Every structure is written in C-alpha cells, then in structure tokens.
Amino acid sequence: MTTKAKTETQQGSADPAEIAKFSALADTWWALEGPFKPLHKFNPVRIALLKSRLAAHFGRDETLDRPFEGLTLLDIGCGGGLIAEPMARMGFAVTGIDASEKNVKTAANHAERMRLDIDYRAMKPEDLPESAQFDVVLALEVVEHVPDRALFLKAAARPLKSGGFIGLATLNRTVKSLMMAKIGAEYVVRWLPAGTHDWRDFVKPSELAHDLRAAGLAEPEFTGLTYNPLRDAWRASDDLSVNYMACTVKP
Fold first, then answer.
1. Is the dihedral of CA 56, 57, 60, 62 positive or negative?
2. Which of 179, 160, 165, 181 is nearest to 224 (CA)?
3. Which ranges in 134-204 belong to alpha helices (H)?
4. Residue 24 vs residues 20, 29, 36, 167: alpha-carbon distances, Å
5. pTM of the model
6. Which of 3, 50, 128, 188 has its CA 20 to 30 A from that of 166?
7. Is the pLDDT of residue 152 over 70?
C-alpha cells in the first residue's frame, strides 16, 4: 500500500493533489518541447511493446494498419490522449478516462482535430457503470500517483472481460530510480517539472504483482524500459530497475 493510502476513504482511487498538479499542465500535453517531452520520446517503445503483446494475446496480425478492429479498450488516466490516439488508430474502440476534467477536455479537443472517434470521460475507474466491459485496460504511468494502489487495481480490473488483457507502466522504487527518475529527471536535466513524482510511491514489481493477484488477475509478465543517453533513445530490456511495464490477463 502506498504512503497516501490513509486518505483513500475520502478520495477513492485518485489523489486531489495529483489531479490538481496534472490539471495545471493540461494545456501542454501535446507540446513536443513541453513538460511531457519525456513521454513523447518514451511513447514509441511503449506502443510497440503493447502492440506486440496485444497481437500475440488476441491472435491478430500486427503488420496490419488496424489489427485490433472489433476490440474495446479502456485507457485509465488517459491524460491528453498520448496513448488513446495511437490505440484508436490501430482499430480499438477506445474509451479514455481521467480524474482531471481539464485533461479530458484537452484530449477530446485534440482527438477532434485529428478526426479520431474516442469516448473521453472525466471520471475515476470505480465510477464506471457496472455494465462497462472492455477487452483491454491500460493504465500507464498511473499507479505511482494513486492514493491506494490495491483499490485502484481492483477498480481497473473490474470492467475487464474474462480473458481480457491489462497493461501497466510504472517506476521501480530503487536507488537507481531515485537518482535517475527523480533527482536526475526533475532537478538535473529538468526533463520533468520538479515534484512530478514522489519516489516513495514508486512500485517494486513484487508489490505490483501482489496487488494484481489480489485484484483477480494472473501473474504478470514484466519488461523493462531502458534509456540510452548516448543515443537519446528508449528500448525494451530485461532491466526493471527504473521504468518497467507489466502485462497480465483476467482468467
């Protein structure tokens, strides 16, 4: 359980301070040189990894332009739509939700300009109707910001169909991540605004696996995401010490 869990009963799966922090940046989601520049650089490797895992899970041909036609996807903590839009282009019927109404407005406005049909809603996962069902649920760079990780993951798993796929991305709580993802990224190279992350809320893979099992999901598969400063590029790897993704299914 995270350090913020004591306030869970008042706020559900979202922390008002985190909502306010990202709401203040809502107009900058699509600025390539803005506060979310690291996500724009990070995105291609995340999307490629997800596309490969999803194609294998659903038996789809990932070389097609729209390999996931007929499948539904929920993007939790969608922000400005940086993941929702490429997923929609791959053929998913995408619903994006975020606790920040400003984020949702930014995402919806951008999708309209891109002529993409994405259903954006300002809400938390526990507020979804009981009838909501999805083939895929994604929550990327979200679990390190929630007040109660176990509560959040149970809410995220509930609308996932039996046999469905869930993908998460987060940061490991290690000395290396403290130096690189917190101190380095926020105060040295200033890739991120100071205060973006609280290192104490980074999540060890073992902790995430425990909470995913408690939410009724299968044992996750982990993949590291590693940055090469000489090439200024990200790649998938076996190194889970800083950034990593977890993929699992609902039995």
1. negative
2. 181
3. 149-157, 175-177
4. 6, 11, 13, 27
5. 0.91
6. 3
7. yes
Number of separate domains in the chain: 1
Q: Locate tokens 């359980």: which residue?
A: 1
Q: Which 3 state secondary structure label does DSSP give 218?
A: coil
By CB neighbour count within 10 A (0-12 exposed, 13-18 middle, 19+ buried), where does 205 fall? middle
DSSP 241: S
CATH number of the CATH domain containing 94: 3.40.50.150
| pLDDT tier for residue 189 given thresholds of 50, 70 and 90 | low
Q: Is 246 exposed, middle or buried (0-12, 13-18, 19+ CB in 10 A)?
A: buried
C-beta separation of 210 from 245 below 8 A = no
Q: Is the pLDDT of residue 7 over 70?
A: no
In which domain, by residue range, is 14 found? 5-249
- Interatomic CA distance for residues 171 and 147, integer angstroms: 16
Count Cα neighbours of 54 within 13 Å in the Cβ-side half-sphere: 26
